[in-house]
């Protein structure tokens, strides 16, 4: 692999794993009070 391919691979990995980390952080930041107030008729 040449340097350009390795650079692009690192950029893609940072984008994917960083997005996953931000999504998990966003989900854990909420206290879950919204889930208790949400009632759904089935």
TrEMBL record:
Keywords: Membrane, Transmembrane, Transmembrane helix
Residues spanning the membrane: 6-25
Domain of life: Bacteria
InterPro entries: MaAIMP_sms (IPR031596)
Name this protein carries in UniProt: Methionine/alanine import family NSS transporter small subunit
């Amino acid at each position: 692999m040449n340097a350009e391919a390795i650079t692009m691979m690192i950029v893609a990995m940072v984008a994917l794993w960083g997005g996953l980390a931000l999504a998990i952080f966003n989900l854990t930041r909420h206290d879950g009070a919204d889930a208790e107030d949400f009632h759904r008729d089935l």
